[in-house]
Amino acid sequence: MPEPMSETEESGPVAAAAQPAVGPMVTGDDVHEALREVIDPELGLDIVSLGLVYGVTVDPEGDAVVSMTLTTPYCPMGPMIESQVHASTQFLPGIRNVKVDLVWDPPWDPHTMASDEAKLELGLY
Asked: Can you give the pTM of this predicted structure?
């Protein structure tokens, strides 16, 4: 005759099945790296290399905030770039929502904010 299961044995598999599997948490660095796919259509370079991304935060619930700027406050490509930011990050594992926070201070300066490779491409050397 089989022994009766203890309370722990009965609830163990049920409790484990009710909890979602937890994988590695997506970090701000992961989101920042994904943003390298976003190309400024006028300059032909990615927004990270251009120095347009000022910071990325991700909270434990998977909500990300991308603080960034544009080359000018009246950049006609702003909505398209913002759409690309969402497209490049929305399928990262663990990301629930991405908010783009456009900031204008400090103003973008390619001489000090762009990567060396971007400066070379832009002819700033």
From this structure: 0.78
